[in-house]
Amino acid sequence: MKTGRTLLALGAALLSLAVLVPAAADPQDEEVDTADWQTALLDDCIADDLRSSIGTNWQPISDNDRGGRSSIELEASGETLRGSGTLRRGGLFGGPGTAGILLPFDESSAEYDINQWDGVRLRIKRTGAPMLLRIVSGEIANGDHFAVDVPGSDEFVTYEFPFSRMGQVMSPQQPWQGDRVSGIELTCWSFPAAEFSFELDSIELYRAGRTTGR
């Protein structure tokens, strides 16, 4: 737990910087009814386009709208989803360069309760700049979403990331909240200019003790 938080702290400026989706209104100002999310497999990455197993498209995201100059290219091979690019922050952009991918649960940005699940399981290999897995939640008003570091590896590795081990990058830590989740991000970041590449084989939600992948 402490190790994960220490690694997250290396990106302490990331949330002035890594808010790649608009921050929601203060959850205390509204009550939102959400349906339970029922599907374990989010994407097995076997499509030959960016369409996921749940029917939504992977979206490239970057810091360009905040003055950064980062870039990302995506390719679906029919077996994996590949991404690569360069991180370069702009002259007036104080945060690190950021780029990655977002999988929305619904094309209309609807929110779902995912508390019946214990975490996210993904099979991935990646090199270069650090990567965060982030849970995009309308309950986090400042955009500092629950996140965890994704280790680097030249070979495919399957990781399980429990929601209970995720935390905020720069905000005071709060208990897991999964009532209003709209999607999941994989975000690479770096202060110096840096390259990154990754290859995603699958991503799913899991319950402890159960295997749901392909």
Would you kindly provide a written description of the structure presented here, covering whatever features stand out?
The protein has 214 residues and is mainly beta. It has one domain (2-19, 40-206): Jelly Rolls (Sandwich). Helix content is 6%, strand content 41%. The chain has helices at residues 2-9, 14-17, and strands spanning 35-36, 41-43, 59-62, 71-76, 81-87, 97-104, 112-113, 119-128, 131-137, 146-150, 153-162, 181-190, 194-206. Strands 2, 4, 5, 8, 11 and 13 form a six-stranded antiparallel beta sheet that branches. It is globular, with a radius of gyration of 16 Å.
Strand segment count: 13
Look at the structure and name the CATH superfamily. Answer: Galactose-binding lectin
Low-confidence stretches: 1-29
Q: In angstroms, what is the radius of gyration? A: 16 Å
Outline, from the CA principal axes?
Answer: globular
**How do the helices and strands follow one another from N- to C-terminus?**
HHEEEEEEEEEEEEE
Return the CATH class: Mainly Beta
Count of distinct structural domains: 1
Approximately how much beta-strand content do the residues carry? 35-45%
User: What is the CATH fold-level name?
Assistant: Jelly Rolls
> Which CATH architecture is right?
Sandwich
Helix content: under 10%
In angstroms, what separates the terminal alpha carbons? 29 Å
Structural class: mainly beta
Please give the count of helices: 2
User: Main beta sheet, described?
Assistant: 6 strands, antiparallel
User: What average pLDDT do the residues reach?
Assistant: 86
